[in-house]
Specification:
The protein has a single domain, classed as Rossmann fold. Helices cover 25% and strands 25% of the residues. Strands 1, 2, 3, 4, 5, 6, 7, 8, 9, 10, 11 and 12 form a 12-stranded mixed β-sheet that branches. α3 links the parallel β10 and β11. α2 packs across α5. It is globular. Bound molecules: hypoxanthine (HPA).
Length: 263
């Protein structure tokens, strides 16, 4: 692929239904063979304000933003039309996706507010349509998914974190659960024994579908809470949203920096 053809999209999860620093140029309602994506595709540039100046700002290359749970945040994880989302981005010419996901922390260093770039997934979902390759096939197709995330795109995010002085945890295994309920304490202990560091409900089948359509895919996870049974506090939506605030501020800055390195 020539550099000229590269195009990046951001899929925003809980707490990131829009990018405040995105100057939207146009918004398009897409339709795919699998139905409508969760939100219109917003085309625009991210602004990055210059710390030394109150007036000057730089603009990133054009990106596409998609709100995974809809702009009104009313599509729960198990009802997201993952195929329509990924197909719509593919149809728009997207070659790379940075996905942003809220997660619960399992590993000792996965405190609320911290950011993680996972490098592995274990899929515990059970009721989702998880492939494009089910009918009208010339051949049975199995994609290689040994390493589910793009190493190159993950590194670009890590380098951006370093240049922006943002603390970020490199690597970790993401457990994808079905939801929409949160896990039991015993389920989290099982995920821990399995080697999982973080748990969320939206990481799959999104990553696998992107691989099927040959789109580079990397994920920035924001720890929103300690996973079930790992702290004395109840996990409430209010607590999740409050913990996400600080983390997502860093994510916006990180994405703006990563986009400038992308092209
Ligand atoms: N479990 C699953 N998904 C989540 C969690 C959690 O604890 N927190 C945010 N998304």
């Amino acid at each position: 692929m020539t550099e000229k053809n590269k195009k990046i999209a951001v899929i925003g999860g809980t707490g990131l239904t829009s990018l405040q620093n995105l100057e939207i140029i146009r918004s398009e309602t897409a339709m795919t063979a699998y139905g409508e994506p969760s939100s219109p595709l917003s085309y625009g540039c991210l602004t990055k304000h210059n710390a030394q100046s109150t007036t000057s700002a730089t603009h990133s290359p054009e990106i596409i933003f998609l709100a995974r749970h809809g702009h009104a945040h009313n599509i729960p994880p198990h009802m997201v039309n993952y195929r329509a989302n990924i197909q719509a981005l593919k149809d728009a010419g997207v070659t790379a996706i940075i996905a942003v996901n809220a997660v619960g922390g399992i590993g000792d260093d996965m405190a609320p507010g911290s950011l993680v770039i996972p490098d592995q997934i274990i899929d515990y979902t059970s009721r989702r349509i998880n492939t494009f390759f089910e009918s009208d096939l010339n051949h049975v197709t199995h994609i290689d998914f040994s390493y589910p995330y793009s190493a190159e795109l993950s590194q670009l995010i890590l380098d951006s974190a370093q240049s922006e002085n943002i603390d970020i945890i490199q690597g970790g295994t993401y457990a994808a659960t079905e939801g929409p309920r949160l896990e039991t304490a015993a389920e989290i202990q099982r995920l821990k024994r399995d080697g999982c560091d973080i748990v969320g409900m939206t990481g799959m089948p999104e990553a696998a579908l992107a691989r099927e359509l040959e789109i580079d895919y990397a994920m920035i996870c924001v720890n929103a809470n300690w996973a079930a049974g790992l702290s004395d506090e109840l996990i409430t939506m209010e607590a999740i949203e409050k913990n996400l605030e600080g983390g997502l501020e860093k994510v916006r800055q990180l994405i703006a920096a990563a986009l400038n390195k992308f092209n």
